[in-house]
Known about the structure:
The strands form four sheets. The chain has a four-stranded mixed beta sheet, with helices on both faces. Strands 4-9-10 form a three-stranded antiparallel beta sheet, with no helix packed on it. It starts with 18 loop residues before the first strand and ends with a strand. The protein has helices spanning 35-55, 121-133, 169-173, 205-213, and strands at residues 19-22, 25-28, 148-149, 154-155, 158-161, 178-186, 192-199, 217-219, 221-223, 226-228, 230-238. Strand 6 (178-186) and strand 7 (192-199) form a beta hairpin. It is an alpha+beta fold. The chain contains four helices and eleven strands, in the order E-E-H-H-E-E-E-H-E-E-H-E-E-E-E. The model is unreliable at 1-30 and 109-138 (pLDDT under 50). The protein folds into two domains: 1-60, no CATH class; 121-238, TonB (TolA/TonB C-terminal domain).
Amino acid sequence: MAFKLERRETTRSKFAPGSLHLGGSPYELEPENRTPLRIAVIATIAFHALLFVISFPSMRPRALQAAQAPKAFVVQAVRFKPPPPAKAEPVPQRKTKKIPIPDPTPDEPEPLIREQLFEAPQLEIDGIADVLFDLPEAPSPAGPPGTMWVEGDVLPPKKTYAPLPNYTEEARQARIQGVVILQAVVDTLGNVGYVKVLKGLPEGLTESAVQVVQEWRYEPATLNGEPVPVYINLTVNFSLQ
């Protein structure tokens, strides 16, 4: 810093503050100009600020990063196969249980059982099979030699004893009704044998019919006055009345 020596005369016995006494004459020191000092300080601060920015690039304004090109995103639609249709589960069928129906008339007599003879058995059986029961034609049951059908000069046998069949309890509770058709042989003594079932019923009614007709007795059929074995068809009717 430069100072200018200026001589000033004073009548004071002491020098003013800031004055310098040189060689017996008072001189006052005074700054010449402070502007260059200020410029130097500002330049130093600016230089250090520039070094700071260069040393730490991450501290640069983010406006430069915002100038980058925008990112584009592509969305691609994906198609999925539709799920297979659900299979409908079968609905279980409710099973109905048969409730036995009691006999409304327990004190009344047992059902009537009808026995029927056919003079032309083969033709009658065919008619019954076609119209009522749709039964196929069946061969006659085995019988003794010379067994014939009741036709022509053959006189049919006559029933002399015919007990009633047993109506099983199972069939009665299930309310089963109908006819059992049998084919049998009446021998020369009037006994019934060689029984064949043409049409039966459940719950033991068929067995009951076969058993009871084997107990029946007849006057034998005759041909020219002589007893002969013959085939006959029997219908046993089971009916709840």
